[in-house]
Specification:
The protein is mainly alpha-helical. The protein has helices at 32-44, 46-64, 66-83, and strands at 8-9, 26-27. A two-stranded parallel ribbon has the order 1-2.
């Protein structure tokens, strides 16, 4: 997903915290017909699918970049120490 490939997932953890189905990735049911239907949709709507892949990649890169996460955690640690 971080490379820009559109993610097709059943979202087994029902995670809706950061990524939005139809915007950042494509959610399918855990059955053959749903998966096949989504793959055909991607084929028929390739440009739109590519845009979903790009949006998902951008969101993942912006929210899961280790440098950003470490910087945020360190700022919280040092903020807490300075307030004590």
């Amino acid at each position: 997903m971080a490379t820009g490939c559109v993610l097709v997932s059943t979202n087994p953890r029902n995670d809706r915290f950061l990524l939005e189905s139809g915007v950042d990735y494509l959610e399918v049911e855990a059955d053959v017909n749903s998966i096949i239907s989504t793959l055909f949709w991607i084929k028929e709507n390739f440009q739109q699918a590519m845009e979903i892949g790009k949006k998902g990649a951008t969101k993942v890169k912006n929210n899961f970049d280790s440098k950003v996460i470490v910087k945020s955690k360190l700022s919280h640690i040092f903020e807490t120490k300075n307030n004590n």
